[in-house]
Each structure stands twice: as structure tokens, then as C-alpha cells.
Amino acid sequence: MDKRIKKVAFLGLFMAFLVIATTIFRFPVPTFNLYFNLGESVIYLVALIFGGPAGAIIGGVGSALSDVLGGYPVWAPITLVIKGIEGFIVGILARKFNPYIAVAAGAIFMMIGYATAAGILYGVGAVPVELAGDFVQVFIGGVIAIPLYKRLKNIYFNDENNF
């Protein structure tokens, strides 16, 4: 089977997994229209394995779709941009630095982006709540994604098994 077809198939599966990780494993934050989820781990894993463009598309589109499906449509365009750039940052930096630096840079961008958006939408009182939730979300996402990446990278980068 053509490697490009396999890659598209795997990216489709990762997109579905991202939607599931974001909509099913979601924990709403009381008071504000915010929630914590496990989708970050999928964004990081895709970006680390497949690179910046794939991380951007899966992260942005998959997460925005999750916002729409999950009842947070006002966040969908914001998420499309923030998560798309976050996935791109992680994927691009992973090619030049270790995965920890790449994930940390993407995480910082995501936290700043969402804190700014929450402040604009809900007022300055939402910023600390958003930052706290996002910190936990990106930390757990990194804790899940980096070890998985270390196990899967040899499969992906092996020319015999490259999907």
C-alpha cells in the first residue's frame, strides 16, 4: 500500500481519536464556559510523529470540531487558530530540538492564547482559571504523548514499517 495512503488513514484515525479525547474525556470548569480535556496528548503525539503541518491540521480542525460537537461553538474559531498553531509549533520544533522543548513551546503558546481569549470573552477573572486548567491539560498531555512518541517513533521512522 502507498505510504501516503497509510499516512492519510492514520491521520484520519488520529483526528477521530482527538475528537473522542476532547469530547468524551472533558471536565467542565464551573462558573465559566470552559473545560479541561485530554485532546492535548493527541495533538502533541501527531505533531511529534508527523510534523508541523499535520499537527496544525489535526490540532486545529479536530479541536474546533470538538468544540462545535461539545456545545462550545463560540470557541471553535479561536480553537482552530490556537490549537492549529500549537500543533505546528510542536511539530516544527520537534525536528530541531528534543520533544520536551517542542511540547513546552507549544504549551506556552496555547496557554497564552486561551488566557487572552478567556479574558476577552469572560473578563479578567477568567484568566487565572483558564491558565490553571490549561497548565494541567498541557502537562498531562505531555506526560501521555512524549512516552508514546518515544515508543512509536522507531516504528514510524523505520523505512521498512514507515506508515
Can you summarize the main beta sheet?
2 strands, antiparallel
Number of domains: 1
Known CATH architecture: Orthogonal Bundle
Morphology call: globular
Helix residue percentage = over 70%
Average pLDDT value? Answer: 89
- SS field, number of helical segments: 6
CATH topology descriptor: Arp2/3 complex 21 kDa subunit ARPC3
Uncertain spans: none
Radius of gyration: 15 Å
Question: First CA to last CA: what distance?
Answer: 9 Å
Compressed to H and E, one letter per element, the order equals HEEHHHHH
Broad structural category: mainly alpha
Topology readout:
Blueprint: H1 3-23, E1 26-29, E2 34-37, H2 39-50, H3 52-69, H4 76-94, H5 99-122, H6 126-156
Antiparallel strand pairs: 1-2
Helix pairs in contact: 1-2, 1-3, 2-3, 2-4, 2-6, 3-4, 4-5, 5-6
Please supply descriptive tags for the structure shown above:
mainly alpha, 163 residues, Arp2/3 complex 21 kDa subunit ARPC3, 5% strand, 6 helices, single chain
Describe this structure in words.
- The model has no long low-confidence stretch (mean pLDDT 89).
- The protein has a two-stranded antiparallel ribbon with strand order 1-2.
- It is mostly helical.
- The termini are close together.
- The chain has helices spanning 3-23, 39-50, 52-69, 76-94, 99-122, 126-156; strands at 26-29, 34-37.
- The protein has one domain: Arp2/3 complex 21 kDa subunit ARPC3 (Orthogonal Bundle).
- The radius of gyration is 15 Å and the shape is globular.
- α2 packs antiparallel against α3 (52-69) and α5 (99-122) packs antiparallel against α6 (126-156).
- Helices cover 77% and strands 5% of the residues.
- It is built from 6 helices and 2 strands.
- The longest helix has 31 residues, at 126-156.
